[in-house]
Amino acid sequence: MRRRDVLSGLGLASLGACTTLTPPPGPPSGKPYLPGRSYAPVHSSMDRVTRTVVGLRPYRPQGYRLDAERLGEKAVIHNYGHGGCGVTMSWGTSTVAADMASAQGRRSIAVLGAGVMGLTTALILARRGHDVRVYAAALPPHTTSNIAGVLWLPTSYYDPDVASEDFLRRNRVLIRAAHRGFLPYVNRPGYGVYWSDHHALSRREPGQYQPLPGGDDLYPELQRVHENTLFGYTYMERFRAIIIDPDYYLDQIMKDAQLAGARFEARDFDSLEAVMGLPQEVIVNCTGLGAGALFGDESLTPIRGQLTHLLPQPEIDYSYVAPSDEGVLYMFPRRTGLVLGGTHDMGNGNIEPDPAQVKRIVEGHAALASRITTPA
Ligand SMILES: Cc1cc2nc3c(=O)[nH]c(=O)nc-3n(C[C@H](O)[C@H](O)[C@H](O)COP(=O)(O)OP(=O)(O)OC[C@H]3O[C@@H](n4cnc5c(N)ncnc54)[C@H](O)[C@@H]3O)c2cc1C
Fold first, then answer.
1. Is the CB–ligand 1 distance for residue 268 below 6 Å?
2. What share of the chain is helix, strand, coil (3-state, %, to 5)?
3. Domain count, the chain
């Protein structure tokens, strides 16, 4: 995959300039970045690190798989391969997967996987009155979905040069459905879903403005800013974004699915034959990267991502994604701490934390924080 795709996949079409080596200029001294607000600096240092986690994004250049096929006696509905935006897209694609499963006319349905896709699909089906059993090798908090950031932004999940027109047309509709699905959870006690004041920073002006994924109206208070930007970058898109803390959110929707009647069973399938041996005639496949081996999908590739968590800073009420000479840096605030990213290593399936990347990320965010000036 080319670097442009990783960046545009991050929702940072305007960050293509991070391939240049010019550092961003510092902010005009003493000036507030934006009228009416100030920014507390992130205290990014090695002694504030609480943990570093690594996850593998399940990426397909052609985009996620969302379809039904007949395998022997079974109807198998596929809902996997969402790359770097599975949490974002969960309500969109899982609703369609649940519709396909319900359309088979059976009460009993098996869901494979208990990441965000399996949990959301199971919740929707159980609320419709289906007898749902979830089979998964890993349950929360041990899934890739628990590792994610999470910024609600539909990015980093297909190569625009490979995805079909059909995929892109349908995807536009599903982005909006996915957004609608999350709105009822924002600020709902216990779900770990909040609004953040988000900043997508760039070193250069975009040649031409592109609407944000799904349409600008999904991003409240959107401003395209050319001066007094955060950290002094040349250009900034600032908007309200939904931040999801997956440890809270996945726990809650798993409980919601259980309350609606879904049952969970720890089970690691080592072959398609083992899956075909399930008693249910309808199976929804939400196995993420696991679908590669289980269903023979050779287009699935891991994109390795490493995140470092810092001690909480309750005064941090903003998030950002920014280019740097050594790669993209992003910060998402949670109640339980600050999440610092990021890495995007295409085709790398190693889940051991890399100490050199921890240092790069912590020092990179400290350098950004040092550019914050207090409003006069
Ligand atoms: C560092 C990082 C940052 C990210 N940031 C974001 C972000 O900001 N926003 C966003 O929307 N997304 C983000 N993502 C992407 C997101 O995490 C994934 O797209 C999403 O988790 C995929 O969900 P899933 O349910 O398909 O897969 P998973 O969460 O991997 O769940 C798969 C489930 O299937 C089970 N399974 C697999 N194989 C088998 C088998 N053979 N037998 C039985 N069970 C099996 C697993 O045990 C698990 O329960 C990020 C990912 C990473 C790694």
1. yes
2. 30, 25, 40
3. 2
